[in-house]
Write a structure and sequence with these properties.
Elements lengths: L1 H12 L5 E12 L9 E18 L3 E6 L4 E6 L12 H9 L7 E8 L9 H17 L5 H15 L7 H8 L4 E6 L5 E5 L4 E7 L9 H18 L13 H7 L5 H26 L2 H17 L6 H11 L4 E7 L6 E7 L3 H16 L4 E5 L6 E4 L1
Helix pairs in contact: 2-4, 3-4, 4-5, 6-8, 8-9, 10-11
This protein binds alpha-D-galactopyranose (GLA).
Alpha-D-galactopyranose (GLA) binds next to helix 5.
C-alpha cells in the first residue's frame, strides 16, 4: 500500500512525496453506543487503514486525488474553511479546526483499504491520516489527544455525525496486539493484551449504513431523554454512565418502554466492557464468548440497531468451533460483524461465511482479518 501510494504520487505530480502518513481503521470488540454516553469502550486499531502521500506546492492550492474514488478535489488554501459537499469536506473540516492554515499548498494522494460505510471508521482514518500528513509537512507539534479532538470536532461539526470519541481515539492510540480499554469521560485508557493465538475477523455485510441520516443521532437523543427522566429521581446524574441498573429500575415508570430499553443497553454494555477486560486478562474463552453473545443480543433487542443480515452472520460465525464470540460492531444499521477466531482458520471461516450468506441473502460478504495494530504515524518519504 505504501509503495503504491508513493508511486501514484510520482506518476501524478512528477516528483517525490515528502511525507507518507497512515491512520488505521478500527474494530470495536465491546462497548457499543456507550462513548456518547460518557461510558467505556474496548476497540482495536486494524492493520487496514488510510495512506496519504503528500508534498508542499507553490501555488497555494490544496489538491487531493483519491485513488479509491478516482477523483480529485482542489481548493485555494484560504477557502479551506468552506463546505463543498464532496469527499474533501472531511479534510476541510480538519483544516477548519487546526490552529492555523497551512502556509503553502499541498499536493496529495490518498489510498485506503478500509471499505467505506462498513462500520470500520473509514472517515476517522481519513481525517487522522490527513492531520498526520499536514503535521509532517509543516512540522506542527500537535499532542496526540489534541489530534483526537480535532478529528472529533471535524466529524461532529463538519460531517454532521454526532459521534463519540472512540474511533478517533483508537486510530491515534492503537497498539499492536492490544485492545484499548478507554474511559470516554476522562480519556484515561489502559492497554489490554489480546490473546496471541487469536485474531480478529471482520465480515462486511455489504449493507451500507446511512449514519449521518437520522438513526444514529436519534439513538443519541433517546439516551438523553432517558437521562432527563432519571434525573428527576437522581439529580446528580450527568449521563447514562452515572446510572446503575438499580437506579434505572427505580426510574422505569418515568419513561416509556423504548427509552427504558435504550438506557438498559448502555448501562449493561458498560458493565460488559469491564467484565470483558477481566475475562481477557484471565483468558476465559468461555465467558468472552458469552459476553459477546449478550452484547449482540442487547444491541438487537434493546438498542435495536441490528438487521436480519447481521444477526445471520453472527449466528453462522458463532456456530464455528474455532470462533470465540461474534457480534455486530460499530453503529449497526448495516456495516460489519466482528468475530474472535483462533489463528490458522482463515480459509474455512471465509468460505463458510461467504457461502452461507450468499445462499441466504444473495449478497457477497467481504471478509478480512487483522491482529490489533498500532496507531497513526507519518514518515519522511
Ligand atoms: C460510530 C461512532 C462511534 C460509536 C459507534 C457505536 O462508529 O463513530 O463514536 O458511537 O458508532 O459504538
Amino acid at each position: 500500500m505504501k509503495d503504491k501510494v508513493r508511486e501514484a504520487f510520482r506518476d501524478k505530480y512528477g516528483k517525490n512525496p515528502e511525507i507518507i502518513s497512515f491512520a488505521p481503521g478500527r474494530v470495536n470488540i465491546i462497548g457499543e453506543h456507550t462513548d456518547y454516553n460518557e461510558g467505556f469502550v474496548m476497540p482495536a486499531a486494524l492493520e487496514q487503514g488510510t495512506y496519504f502521500a503528500g508534498a508542499k506546492n507553490r501555488d497555494k492550492k490544496i489538491r487531493i486525488f483519491s485513488l479509491n474514488l478516482k477523483k480529485e478535489d482542489s481548493w485555494e488554501i484560504e477557502h479551506s474553511r468552506e463546505r463543498k459537499g464532496d469527499f474533501s469536506d472531511y479534510l476541510r473540516g480538519i483544516l477548519n479546526f487546526l490552529p492555523f492554515l497551512p502556509s503553502s499548498g499541498i499536493d496529495g494522494i490518498v489510498l485506503s483499504n478500509i471499505p467505506i460505510g462498513a462500520g470500520l471508521s473509514s472517515s476517522a482514518a481519513f481525517e487522522i491520516s490527513f492531520i498526520f500528513l499536514v503535521s509532517g509537512l509543516f512540522n506542527l507539534k500537535i499532542e496526540p489527544t489534541e489530534i483526537v479532538k480535532i478529528a472529533h470536532h471535524a466529524e461532529n461539526e463538519f460531517a454532521g455525525l454526532k459521534c463519540g470519541i472512540m474511533d478517533q481515539f483508537v486510530s491515534v492510540f492503537g497498539k499492536k496486539d492490544h485492545l484499548i480499554f478507554l474511559d470516554t469521560r476522562t480519556m484515561e485508557y489502559e492497554y489490554v493484551p489480546f490473546p496471541f493465538f487469536w485474531e480478529i475477523a471482520v465480515v462486511n455485510s455489504g449493507i451500507k449504513r446511512e449514519l449521518t441520516s437520522s438513526q444514529y443521532n436519534r439513538r443519541k437523543e433517546e439516551c438523553e431523554e432517558a437521562v432527563k427522566a432519571i434525573k428527576k429521581l437522581f439529580p446528580e446524574v450527568k449521563s447514562l454512565r452515572d446510572v446503575t441498573e438499580d437506579m434505572l429500575f427505580e426510574a422505569r415508570k418515568l419513561m416509556n418502554e423504548r427509552i427504558y430499553k435504550r438506557a438498559m443497553h448502555v448501562i449493561s454494555e458498560n458493565r460488559r466492557v469491564f467484565e470483558m477486560k477481566e475475562y481477557l486478562l484471565k483468558n476465559d474463552a468461555c465467558m468472552i464468548e458469552k459476553t459477546m453473545k449478550l452484547a449482540h443480543q442487547s444491541l438487537t433487542e434493546d438498542f435495536e440497531v441490528s438487521l436480519p443480515e447481521l444477526d445471520f452472520l453472527v449466528d453462522v460465525a458463532s456456530s464455528l468451533p474455532y470462533v470465540h464470540g461474534a457480534r455486530l460492531t460499530g453503529a449497526g444499521f448495516g456495516g460489519s460483524i466482528v468475530a474472535l477466531i483462533q489463528k490458522n482458520h482463515r480459509l474455512d471461516f471465509e468460505n463458510t461465511i461467504k457461502n452461507a450468506y450468499r445462499k441466504k441473502f444473495s449478497i457477497e460478504a467481504e471478509v478480512f482479518f487483522s491482529s490489533p495494530s498500532g496507531g497513526a504515524y507519518f514518515e519522511r518519504a
